């Protein structure tokens, strides 16, 4: 229940996703205090019970969100957090033995931790889902919209691969109202590198200024929960352990993915140009390398 956990909790309540919201923190008083605070605002969100609980109490939940882990410091990459957070993953996975719901991973490095939570818990890969590049994709659409003075909801563009420094923007597939971005009036190719860099470094810029990112990832996670639990069969860029897509195995990363109430339904082999495919496979190698070092 740090910055991110609190952000996820309040966004989940506002979305009306749950009837019961259980909170946990290594510091018991923090979870209790957050539950009290959120309950006091119950007149302003759809009815839900909010209370502190042990990890073991959560085994019967439909979904569990993992935000536990050390946050990033200025100058650190997401992969720098791995050594600190892998043991937390191992401990929590032991406590979650018997859980049969959906496990949503938010803690960073999210792709590597998604891989290890699936391995440690023994859950089917389709039920362990990292938020992956869903936030990066939202940032990308916002930044394109800002540049073109358009609502980001009208922009269809995606980030794939690692949620981190090797991520790949699929400019070749980016469209606005059905028009490829390269044909959009006023679009310049020079915008692409600039925007991609802004997306890649967005978290670092925010952490440098306020110490953490929490609001946008809270919104992202709450919406992901809603789409999953309502079985909306959305196509979103989330991270999951690969089972042969593009020939990849034993690595978790983000691709456009069909989701439903059972979790991942299908990971799509989206069209990429030659350069995008090369960089995407390089991103997979970066993540495999991180997994191999642990």
Summarize the model shown:
With 294 residues, this protein is α/β, with parallel strands linked by helices.
Explain what the structure shows.
This protein is an alpha/beta fold and 294 residues long. Helices cover 41% and strands 19% of the residues. It is built from eight helices and 13 strands. α4 crosses α8. The longest helix has 21 residues, at 190-210. The radius of gyration is 19 Å and the shape is globular.
| Morphology call | globular
Number of helices: 8
Report the β-strand fraction as a percent range.
Answer: 15-25%
The SSE order reads HEHEEHEHEHEEEEEHHEEEH
Structural class: alpha/beta
Whole-Å distance between the termini?
26 Å
Helix content: 40-55%
Beta strand count:
13
Trace the largest sheet across and list its strands.
3-4-5
- The value of Rg in angstroms is 19 Å
For the residues shown, what is the average pLDDT?
Answer: 94
For the largest beta-sheet, the strand count, sense and barrel status come to: 3 strands, parallel
Unreliable spans are none
Fill in the keyword field for this structure.
294 residues, alpha/beta, 3-stranded parallel beta sheet, 3-stranded antiparallel beta sheet, 8 helices, 13 strands
List the helices and strands and how they pair.
Layout (H helix, E strand, L loop, with lengths): L2 H12 L5 E4 L4 H12 L9 E4 L10 E4 L15 H14 L6 E4 L4 H12 L6 E3 L3 H15 L6 E2 L2 E2 L7 E2 L5 E2 L2 E2 L9 H21 L4 H15 L5 E9 L5 E12 L2 E5 L6 H19 L2
Parallel strand pairs: 1-2, 3-4, 4-5
Antiparallel strand pairs: 6-9, 7-8, 9-10, 11-12, 12-13
Helix pairs in contact: 1-7, 3-4, 4-8, 5-6
């Amino acid at each position: 229940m740090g910055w991110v956990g609190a952000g996820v909790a309040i966004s989940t309540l506002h979305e009306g996703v749950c009837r019961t919201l259980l909170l946990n923190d290594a510091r018991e008083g923090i979870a209790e205090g957050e539950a009290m605070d959120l309950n006091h605002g119950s007149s302003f969100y759809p009815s839900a019970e909010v209370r502190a609980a042990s990890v073991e109490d959560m085994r019967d939940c439909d979904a569990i969100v993992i935000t536990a882990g050390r946050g990033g410091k200025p100058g650190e990459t997401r992969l720098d957090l791995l050594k600190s957070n892998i043991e937390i993953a191992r401990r929590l996975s032991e406590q979650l033995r018997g859980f049969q719901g959906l496990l949503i991973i938010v803690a960073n490095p999210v792709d590597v931790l998604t891989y290890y939570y699936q391995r440690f818990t023994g859950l089917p890969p389709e039920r362990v889902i990292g938020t992956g590049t869903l936030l990066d994709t939202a940032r990308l659409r916002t930044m394109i919209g800002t540049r073109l003075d358009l609502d980001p909801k009208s922009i269809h563009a995606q980030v794939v691969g690692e949620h981190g420094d090797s991520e790949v923007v699929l400019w070749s597939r980016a469209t606005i109202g059905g028009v490829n971005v390269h044909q959009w009036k006023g679009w310049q190719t020079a915008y692409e590198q600039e925007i991609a860099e802004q997306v890649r470094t967005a978290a670092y810029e925010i952490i440098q200024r306020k110490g953490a990112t929490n609001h946008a990832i809270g919104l992202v996670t709450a919406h992901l929960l809603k789409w999953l639990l309502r079985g909306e069969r959305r196509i979103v860029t989330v991270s999951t352990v690969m089972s042969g897509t593009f020939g990849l195995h034993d690595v978790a990363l983000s691709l456009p993915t069909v989701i439903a109430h059972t979790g991942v339904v299908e990971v799509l082999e989206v069209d990429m140009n030659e350069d995008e495919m090369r960089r995407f496979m390089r991103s997979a190698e970066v993540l495999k390398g991180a997994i191999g070092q642990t």
